[in-house]
Each structure stands twice: as structure tokens, then as C-alpha cells.
Give the backbone structure.
Amino acid sequence: MIWRQMLGYIPVNLANIVISFGTIAILTRLFDGAEFGRYALAIASLHFIHMVFFTWIEAAMARFYARAERRGQLASHLKTSYVTAVIMALLGLPLFMGVIYILPIENTMKTILAFALASTCLTLIYNIGIEAHKAAHRIGRFSAIHSSQSLFGFGLGIVLILVTPLREAAPFVGILAASA
């Protein structure tokens, strides 16, 4: 049983390896130094904001899933988690955009940050579903959905860098599209 579960996570780990390696190997070749620096600042901001404002919702989904299932309150737990995520995303998005607007930084960086923080708001809602699959021990489903979403978002971001003027914002547009 444990080996089957461990093997079920291999696609997720492989997708993460491809994306991590691809970020360095591909993006450093597609972006010049300044562009990659702006991208790196935006991705660090995305992770920081997500951790500070949203991770608790995802953790609560996983933490209380088994208890809700045992008590027959799973539907209520899922509804509460999704409603909370949507409310936090809807409150967070204008708040983040307002802060970005007043920051004394160049417009290019503001645009990149806007796409990055919008992507983390949408990804929050996606992550609730992923955490539910993981908490229910549907590892195959979790692995397939998460791996394909990650690889699709990364691949789309690369394509958008190549064919659009989005440049550093393109990976975040890829994340938005994959999460949607």
C-alpha cells in the first residue's frame, strides 16, 4: 500500500524537476539578466504572498478533511473551504493590485507583479481541490491533475514568452490559464 502511494507521487516529483530545471535552463536563455531578475522578484513575491495570506486555507482543507469525512460533514467542509478561498481571493486581488499601484516601481514591474499575484489568487482555488484529492488519498487523481496543470502552465508560459510581448509576465499568464 505505502509503495503504491509513493509511486503515485512520482509524476508530481518529475513535473517539479522538469519545471525547476526548465526555469533555469530555458528562462535564463529566453530572458536577459534584467528580465530574469524581474521574473525572480515576482516569483519570490508570489510565493511570499501565497504563504502569508493563503496557505492556511489549504492546510485547513487537508487538516480537517478526515474529521469531516468521519462525521459525515465532508460536503460542508468542502463548501466552507471553497467559499473561504473564493472570498480570500476576491478580497486579496484588489488589495494586492492597490498595493502594486502605489508602489514606487517601474510600470513593467507593476505589470509583472499584477499577473503574478493574480495567478496566486486563482491558484488558491485550484489548490483547494488538489488538497482534497490528496487528503482523500486519491493519489493517482492528485498526481495526474497536479502534474498536468504544472507542466501545461510552464509550457504555455514558455510559448507565450516566444510568441507574445508579455516577456516576464508570460509564465504567470501560463499559471493563470492552467489553474483556470
Observations:
- Residues 74-102 form the longest helix (29 residues).
- Residues 112 and 169 are 5 Å apart (CA to CA).
